[in-house]
Amino acid sequence: MEGDPTLRLRVFDLNCWAIRYLSRRRQERVRLIGDALRREGFDLVLLQEVWSEQDYSDLKVKLGGCYPFSHYFRSGVIGSGLCIFSRFPILDTLLYQYSLNGYPYMLQHGDWFCGKSVGLGRRRSGSQPLLLGSPQLHAEYCRDKDAYLPHRLVQAWELAQFIRHTSKGADVVLLGGDLNMHPEDVGIRLLRGWTGLRDAFAEATRFEGCEDGCTLVPNNCFTDKSELLPFPLGIRIDYILYKAISSFMVKCEELKTTTGTVPGMDVPFSDHEAVMATLHIQRQGQAAGATLSTAEPTLADVVTEARTEVGVGLRVAQQQRRSSGRMALLALLLLLLQAAAALGALAGLDAGQPFPKLSFCLLGFLAIGILLLATALYLFHTMEVKMLRGTEEQMRMVLQALQEHP
Amino acid sequence: MEGDPTLRLRVFDLNCWAIRYLSRRRQERVRLIGDALRREGFDLVLLQEVWSEQDYSDLKVKLGGCYPFSHYFRSGVIGSGLCIFSRFPILDTLLYQYSLNGYPYMLQHGDWFCGKSVGLGRRRSGSQPLLLGSPQLHAEYCRDKDAYLPHRLVQAWELAQFIRHTSKGADVVLLGGDLNMHPEDVGIRLLRGWTGLRDAFAEATRFEGCEDGCTLVPNNCFTDKSELLPFPLGIRIDYILYKAISSFMVKCEELKTTTGTVPGMDVPFSDHEAVMATLHIQRQGQAAGATLSTAEPTLADVVTEARTEVGVGLRVAQQQRRSSGRMALLALLLLLLQAAAALGALAGLDAGQPFPKLSFCLLGFLAIGILLLATALYLFHTMEVKMLRGTEEQMRMVLQALQEHP
Q1: Cα distance between residue B93 and residue B75, in whole Å
Q2: Which of A64, A114, A369, B287 is exposed most, by the fewest CB atoms within 10 A?
């Protein structure tokens, strides 16, 4: 087990909250992030919410010396916001966009426009192929009545499936990102259980930073204090997860988070705290056993729980589809009635008072508007139903397999 | 090399053209397909354009005895249309939806609504893990002026990247589907060059079926004869591709296509001909060398050619984005002018003839409609530009890598 050289890997992960025109003191913070990254010299940097390509280009120029390899993942209307900087060559990249990501009409939340996804890089660090992912999942806007839970669960499931399918040839898998889930949430249990990924915070020998490893804390000047009221210490939603496949072993030697403002400044890097891990990767004599199988009874419970939630989401989506279908039908009916009335008027059938032209026109446009909107909604919810049903079906298959071969 | 047991794999691939209410004699054809599959007993069946879940369910019931394992891939508004039937267990599935797939406003082509994608199954056949994909790419509606070429190239690229990333742990990779590309097209050369997949038609020891392996032939009663005028023999756009990784070898012993009508009937299975391959998978002593590297100079040329086409598409998309942006601005300007006129009228500033109310209203609604439409188009083309640029950038990276390490 000993004797082989070990690799020490220092990883930095941060949700940068760099939204053009919206995020406060964005350019200053991006500059500070770049300075810190250049100073600290990590091996691997995973950033989320770098929405502006200009910010990425600026970082690339600044960090070119110490991180010669980088990639920016493009997706959606606004982008994925994901980028990677690396000291070692990035051999190949792939972006997987989740099939569900909120609702286009929830403009105030805007997740739908972002094309949330997981960006994947394949690199060689020393001799080991390393698969690294930088995911971001749909945000949670209201924990008590979380309308996006089914979507986030579909994303967690797709992320897990994607990791399983792409990690076959990698010795080490590393995932760092803003998962928008608390450690005890069903989605993170599902992701960890189904992929065998381990949580750097739980495994770290040493920890330094915000209490309980929180990454959204009340004493960060950019966080919404009212949202964090039920969590006086803050919440942990940014993770570094890893696992070793085949004959390697990964240990987290140290995990750190930033704790609010940058030393010597009055501003933190972001509204999230950064997570920094020092990992030791070591070749070991025997191939590591399937760590997954030992936890399978629990895994079946987690998949069942997730499937129930997806089922709830499915019924809501079906209800919404029915409602929009009905609305479209009503609008169509109104239009047909108007057309009949107009034809009647043209044929000179209305002997009495004619319907006022302006109101008639306004009503027609209203009906057309509602018809178009309701049809678009119907199509959208049809797609939603399809994806939720597909995920539920996949989970059912996995449960069956888990029960047949425990 | 000899001594190890070989596996014989019989594969069936067909674009079923089973669109509800639109495809002629759909139910009858699906029944015929089911009968043939049950009679022939293939090991693996890859179907595309099974748009109705009811058709899939009917097939599943009929084929349950000889193909106990199956999966239907759901995506998009209408669905992906992809399904797999297998004699061996399907261990896991994953669907990858292409980031670009035509234009939502090209209703007559409808590809955008289909969520075209590649469905992936991972199964064990005998002792070998087998990765199988069933892709469908954007259709080509006009070969001379193919507006969808850049989209199809992005799809071919994403498909190749997806295969590369997911195939690491598989001994054999098998891809069967309707690629909507002629054998000499840049997209298929890109896909084959970048993944190392081999064309069963070119490799087959024996071939039987339509001349040149064509799968869209003029003597099929459902094909559009005028579209096939430049190709008197027909075109070959449905493929079975394969490769062996690690220490396996795959040989195509026999390839067949159907040739029009089903024997004893007056109707063919579909407007496409089915492709059937008999493959021999054999373990060999030495690990197969990287077949990719020998062809790399050509690969660089193919990637360059594809990148040029994507670049052309990028400029068109940028132009369309600019046009829709301008149209949205004009509509906004018109609305503002109208608002100013209306305010003026309210304030009693128009001493003379007032603007007729009805026309005023109609103009307002027209401006709102154009504004909404142009904004939606602008957002759509922004996304298109982003994805085309992303693909171009990825291709540039690959070219650089190919030049640095020839």
Answers
A1: 13
A2: B287
- Separation between Cα atoms, residue A388 and residue B9, nearest integer Å: 34
Are the beta carbons of B166 and A161 separated by less than 8 Å? no
Give the pLDDT of chain A (406 residues) as one tens digit per residue: 344 568 889 999 999 999 888 888 999 999 999 999 999 989 999 999 998 889 999 999 999 999 998 888 877 677 778 899 998 888 777 788 787 776 676 666 566 665 566 666 666 655 556 676 666 776 666 666 777 888 889 989 988 988 888 887 778 888 899 988 999 999 999 999 999 999 999 999 999 999 999 999 998 889 888 888 889 999 999 999 999 876 788 999 999 999 988 888 889 999 999 999 999 988 876 544 444 444 555 889 999 999 999 999 999 999 999 999 999 999 999 999 988 888 887 777 655 556 677 788 888 888 988 999 999 899 889 989 988 998 998 898 888 888 877 6
B360 and B219 within one domain: no
pLDDT tens column, B294-352: 455 688 999 999 999 999 999 999 999 999 999 999 999 999 998 888 888 777 765 55
3-state secondary structure of A276: strand
User: Which residue range forms the structural domain that includes residue B308?
Assistant: 299-346+354-404
In this prediction the ipTM stands at 0.72
Would B279 be classed as within a structural domain? yes
Pair (B277, B319) in one structural domain: no
pLDDT tens figures, A328-353: 999 999 999 988 888 887 777 655 55
CA-to-CA distance for B25 and B27, rounded, in angstroms?
A: 6
Beta pairing class for B44-50 and B7-18: parallel
Q: How do beta strands B198-199 and B238-244 pair? A: antiparallel
Shortest CB distance from A94 goes to which of B73, B95, B162?
A: B162
Whether residues B250 and B312 share a domain: the answer is: no
* Choice among B71, B151, B272, B381 that is catalytic: B272
Residue A198, both tokens: 């381990």
Same domain? For A246 and A327 the reply is no
Comparing CB atoms, the residue among B79, B96, B361 nearest residue A361 is B361
* Same domain as A172, residue A122: yes
The model carries a pTM of 0.81
| Min Cα separation B361/chain A (Å) | 8
H or E stretch covering A55: helix A53-63
**Catalytic: B272?**
yes
The tens digit of pLDDT for each residue in B65-101 reads 999 988 888 776 777 788 999 988 887 777 787 877 7
Residue B291 domain flag: no
Q: For residue B204, is it within any domain?
A: yes
Tell which of B258, B283, B308 closes a domain: B283
A25: left (phi over 0), alpha (psi -120 to 50) or beta: left
B269 phi-psi bin (left φ>0, alpha ψ -120 to 50, beta other): alpha
Total domains in the fold of chain A:
2
- The pair of structure tokens assigned to A78 is 């606004």
* Catalytically annotated residues of A: 272
- The encoded tokens of residue B185 equal 């097209």
Nearest CA in chain B to A398: B92
Of B75, B120, B357, the CB nearest to A99: B75
CATH number of the domain bearing residue A216? 3.60.10.10
Q: Check B386 against A162: CB less than 8 A apart.
A: no
For residue A107, report the phi and psi dihedrals to the nearest 5 degrees.
Answer: -60, -35
Minimal C-alpha gap between B228 and chain A (Å): 34
Residues A39 and A139 in one domain: yes
Domain-located, residue A291: no
Q: State the pLDDT at residue B346.
A: 78
Asked if residues A148 and A189 have their Cβ atoms less than 8 Å apart, the reply is no
Q: Say if residue A81 is in the same domain as residue A17.
A: yes
Q: Are A194 and A316 found together in one domain?
A: no
Measured CA distances, A42 to A66, A87, A88, B70 (Å) = 9, 8, 11, 46
